[in-house]
Each structure stands twice: as structure tokens, then as C-alpha cells.
Design a protein that fits this description.
By secondary structure, the chain is an alpha+beta fold. The protein is built from three helices and ten strands, in the order E-E-E-E-E-E-E-H-E-E-H-E-H. The protein has an eight-stranded antiparallel barrel. It is globular.
Length: about 170
């Protein structure tokens, strides 16, 4: 069963994420023990001001897709680490556009989505390409590296709109 954390459903499982040379990320999250698969797609957000958090620091707009419900939800996470990445939710994003800072602050009553991921296995070159051809064939040939590790997501609720209208 899913744990509850501050009234939020907490999903834990394993993620396989391809880090593309352009800064985007793509992959999937398998919620355990149910083996429910969610899609992950992220685009790097440009900072309008000089960012002083180090050259390996990025903000990513992460879209999580429920393939069964054909719904998706967005959140913003920080990405640290070069090829062996770590993703974590953040509390503020000074220097970014208002749409980014608004997504992080979320004062519209929606539950905030919290994400954490740490690379446990890094695949590069041939190992990465073999993994991508098997599990993410549309990304083949893009020179991506693959991060595999534990992921935790809380606050994700694709059924919230449906429950309120019934």
C-alpha cells in the first residue's frame, strides 16, 4: 500500500531516465509493488540571471504522464550532477520567470508534487544505447546517458478532478 505523507499519496519505485545532450530528460517511473508505469519528460528551464549554484545545477520542468488515464501533471525540480543526476523538488527559484516561480509556490490550492531521484546505476555509450533501444526506442541514436535509481513522488493525483465532479 502507498504510504501517506502530510495527506499526500507517496509513490516509490524505480526510474530509468535518459539524459539527452540538449538538457532534456525522458524516461519512465515504475511504481512498486504495483508495477504501474508513468512517463517522465523534462525540459531544461533557462535562468534569466546569472546562476551561482554551480555549472551542474539546472531547473527542469518535469511532466509526469499517467498513460492509463491519459493525463499529465507538471512540476519543477532541480537537477544536480552531470551524468549521474539527482532530482529534487525545490522551495524557491529566484532569477527564473514568474511562471516557473509560480509553479513552485503553487498557491492555487493544488497539492504540490514533490519528487526525489538519485542515480544508482549509470549507463553510457554502448550500455546506454542498448538500454535505450530496448526500453526507449524513440531515443535511440541521440547519444544519451541513462540513469537508473530509486524515485519517490508525492502529491501526484491524476484522479483529483474526477473525484470532485462525481
Amino acid at each position: 500500500m502507498d504510504e501517506r505523507e502530510e495527506g499526500k499519496v507517496v509513490m516509490e519505485g524505480v526510474a530509468s531516465i535518459a539524459l539527452l545532450p540538449c538538457g532534456s530528460v525522458s524516461g519512465h517511473f515504475i511504481q512498486l509493488p504495483h508495477s504501474i508505469c508513468y512517463g517522465l519528460y523534462g525540459t531544461e528551464l533557462a535562468c534569466e540571471r546569472e546562476c551561482s549554484r554551480g555549472e551542474d545545477y539546472r531547473l527542469i520542468k518535469l511532466t509526469i504522464t499517467d498513460f492509463n488515464a491519459k493525463k499529465e501533471q507538471d512540476t519543477v525540480v532541480e537537477r544536480k550532477g552531470h551524468d549521474a543526476a539527482r532530482f529534487h523538488s525545490i522551495d524557491h527559484a529566484h532569477g527564473w520567470e514568474k511562471d516557473v516561480t509560480g509553479m513552485i509556490g503553487q498557491t492555487d490550492g493544488k497539492k504540490r508534487i514533490l519528487v526525489s531521484f538519485e542515480c544508482e546505476t549509470l549507463k553510457a555509450e554502448k550500455a546506454a544505447e542498448d538500454h535505450i533501444r530496448k526500453f526507449m526506442p524513440k531515443l535511440a541514436g541521440l547519444d544519451a546517458v541513462v540513469n537508473i535509481g530509486r524515485m519517490r513522488i508525492s502529491g501526484l493525483d491524476f484522479g483529483a478532478e474526477d473525484v470532485e465532479t462525481e
